[in-house]
Design a protein that fits this description.
Layout (H helix, E strand, L loop, with lengths): L1 H19 L4 H5 L2 E6 L5 H16 L3 E6 L5 H13 L4 E4 L8 H9 L4 E4 L11 E5 L1 H16 L8 E6 L7 H19 L2 E2 L7 H4 L6 H15 L10 E4 L2 H13 L9 E2 L6 H9 L5 E3 L2 H16 L21 E4 L2 E3 L4 H6 L11
Parallel strand pairs: 1-2, 1-3, 3-4, 4-5, 5-11, 6-7, 6-8, 8-9
Antiparallel strand pairs: 10-12
Bound molecules: beta-D-glucopyranose.
């Protein structure tokens, strides 16, 4: 009896010690977090994955981080199944195609494993609990406003020639990036001040599979040929690009057509990838959108911590993101635009890059 009593007291002491030391239940149990990223071939996902892995491990979690090859949906499916079977207590998923993971998501749900959609929403499923991303519509409006302000569309007569590029049709984000930009630009297209000479102006006409740099380059080369664009040909004033991987292909094509920093069309981007920042400094891209992946990663760690403790995670948007099964409670981080004028403060002073990385 006495022995039993001392065992119970010792157990209680251990519990109280851990509680006082502030160990979370999750850290105590070293819960495993499965993180499924789309690809390592685009810069940002490497940063997202590395940031989350470091932050989760620092918070006492075990991490299973997987990249799905070169945006390969079957690989992503298999990796998520492995995470479920391998004992992950929660899944964080940045989908290649938001509609293609249904079977794995159902399995997770059946086993009571909560899912956080990371950056890209998972569509047509009730297996997803929360969404953490940036304000994607604002990304688009910032890009559109940049074009409007650079061309002084409210005061200049124009007309100005524009071509449009957005990303993968399976990525729900393009509806927000492209939709946000078009919400600003459409009135000027309607009035004829902006002219899309190719006539390719719908989301589906301007989408780019896999957000691929070579595909964007090829399409830009075709647009140049078909419309006679060039420094000595038909003027091309602006190219709207939803992100940097596309902008890089567009820059290659424009440079190939003879454009230089002196006469380069306005060209937008997103992510502040190293290649794009170098192009911005060289005058062969005009702007990018800075989405601090450290902020998003930190928010997701907080979210998962709350979920595993049975608490309500912090969200700041409960109206925008309907995935077809209802509104998914979301946390939206704030995107800001980056140009040659503010990049130092945004990217260097904040420690995101060193000046050397951008040389
Ligand atoms: C992300 C962008 C990224 C793109 C291509 C989108 O879902 O939000 O930041 O540029 O995918 O990787």
């Amino acid at each position: 009896m006495r022995k039993l009593f001392s065992v119970v007291v010792a157990g209680l002491l251990v519990f109280v010690l851990f509680a006082c030391a502030g160990f979370s239940g999750a850290a105590f149990a070293a819960a495993k977090v499965g993180i499924s990223m789309p690809t390592q071939s685009l810069q940002r996902w490497n940063q997202d994955g590395a940031n989350m892995k470091a932050m989760f491990e620092a918070a006492g979690y075990e991490v299973d981080l997987q990249y799905a090859g070169e945006n390969e949906v079957p690989v992503q499916l298999a990796q998520i199944e492995n995470m479920i079977n391998g004992g992950s207590k929660v899944l964080i998923i940045a989908a290649i195609d938001g509609r293609a993971l249904a079977t794995a998501l159902e399995d997770a749900k059946a086993q009571g494993i909560p899912i956080v959609a990371y950056d890209r929403l998972l569509m047509d499923t009730d297996a997803v609990s929360y969404y953490a991303t940036f304000d994607n519509f604002k990304v688009g409006t910032l890009q559109g406003e940049f074009i409007r302000d650079q061309l002084k569309l409210d005061t200049e007569a124009g007309p100005f020639n524009i071509e449009l590029f957005t990303g993968d049709p399976g990525d729900n984000n393009i509806n927000f990036f492209f939709g946000g930009a078009i919400s600003i630009l459409q009135p000027y297209i309607d009035s004829g001040k902006l002219v899309v000479k190719s006539g390719q102006a719908t989301r589906d006409q301007v989408a780019t599979l896999g957000w691929s740099t070579p595909r964007a380059q090829e399409r830009m080369e075709n647009l140049i040929t078909a419309n006679g664009y060039g420094p000595d040909g038909t003027p091309l004033h602006v190219v709207y690009s939803s992100n940097d991987s596309l902008a890089n292909g567009i820059t290659n094509a424009l440079v190939g057509a003879g454009y230089t920093a002196e006469n380069f069309p306005i060209l937008t981007g997103q992510d502040c990838d190293v290649t794009s920042m170098k192009n911005i400094l060289a005058g062969t891209q005009s702007m990018s959108i800075f989405k601090d992946t450290r902020t998003l990663a930190a928010q997701v760690v907080k979210m998962v911590d709350a979920i595993l403790k049975g608490e309500q995670p912090e969200v700041n948007d409960t109206t925008t993101y309907d995935n077809g099964s209802g509104i998914i409670p979301s946390f939206l981080c704030d995107p800001v635009f980056a140009t040659i004028d503010n990049y130092r403060e945004l990217l260097i002073d904040s420690g995101y890059y060193t000046e050397d990385q951008l040389r």
